[in-house]
Structure formats: structure tokens, C-alpha cells
Amino acid sequence: MGRKKGVVFDEGAPDDFDPENPYKDPVAMLEMREHLVREKWIDIEKAKILREKVKWCYRVEGVNHLQKCRHLVHQYLDATRGVGWGKDQRPPSLHGPKVEAGVAE
């Protein structure tokens, strides 16, 4: 017996979920809920990784961190916009303005 060459993840939303009538199929509804939670955790972990990169950049660059780490800060701010457990019900306009990475403020 050998090892498997790769792992295949089922990362898509369930095919039989009906957003118009979510309670029609309870199994599909639970699978959809698990899918949304999984995607939310992935977004949160990506933001954590970017936060660690920003911290590292600030420590390494010292006084030049405003110029040298700007691109990482913009990536982190974009990654955290709308991420979190309490922001799902708020409209995107309340999450803050979207700032482009190349625009100086």
C-alpha cells in the first residue's frame, strides 16, 4: 500500500441547496451552513497571516515602515473588510471605504 498522491477537498457549496426555500432540504441547508462557516474561517486565517506579515515588516523596516509596508497594510485592510462573525448582517457600505493599494492618501 502506498500513500495517496494528493488530497481532494470538497470545497464547493452543495448543489442541491435552494436559497429561495432553504428549509426544503435540511441536509443541504446544514451543508451550506458548514460551507459558509468554513469560508469565513479561511478569510479570518488569511487576515491573521497578513497581520503577522505587517508586524514583521514594521519591526524590520523601523522608521521607514510607512513607505516600505504600505502594500501589506492595504492588503491587510482589504482582507479584514467585512470579515468577522458579527458583520454578516451589516450592509457593505458600513464596512468602511475600499482603498486601492496604489492610491496615496
From TrEMBL:
Record keywords: Electron transport, Membrane, Mitochondrion, Mitochondrion inner membrane, Respiratory chain, Transport
Membrane topology: Peripheral membrane protein
UniProt cross-references to Pfam families, sorted A to Z: NDUFB10
Membrane recorded as keyword: yes
Subcellular localization: Mitochondrion inner membrane
Recorded superkingdom: Eukaryota
Protein family: Belongs to the complex I NDUFB10 subunit family.
Protein name as catalogued: NADH dehydrogenase [ubiquinone] 1 beta subcomplex subunit 10-B
GO cellular component: mitochondrial inner membrane; respiratory chain complex I
Presence of the UniProt keyword Mitochondrion in the record: yes
